[in-house]
Write a structure and sequence with these properties.
Layout: H1 2-10, H2 19-27, H3 33-50, H4 55-65, H5 71-79
């Protein structure tokens, strides 16, 4: 039972990729931790806003989870989507 809990915690993108793919990419240094963090922040922000929580209050709630980030930093993360990489 503990092993599955650890697996879920070690793969924050479980809704997008399998644990095996996560482990492989992470072990090869192909996961950008900051991008994963920003994705999780945007996801949680959308969830909070869907519950009719005010924008400022949602950002404050996220600051409790990420105390090392400033209010404006979280605001920029949630309001400025990541730049798309062109596929040519």
């Amino acid at each position: 039972m503990e092993n599955t809990v650890e697996k879920k915690l070690s793969n924050p993108l479980a809704d997008l990729i399998s644990d095996e793919v996560w482990d492989l990419l992470y072990s090869r240094g192909l996961i950008n931790d900051r991008s994963v963090r920003d994705y999780l922040i945007r996801k949680k922000f959308k969830m909070l806003r869907s519950q009719k929580i005010r924008t400022g209050d949602a950002i404050d709630a996220l600051r409790e989870e990420y105390p090392y980030l400033q209010f404006d930093t979280i605001r920029k993360i949630v309001h400025n989507p990541p730049k798309q990489v062109s596929r040519s």
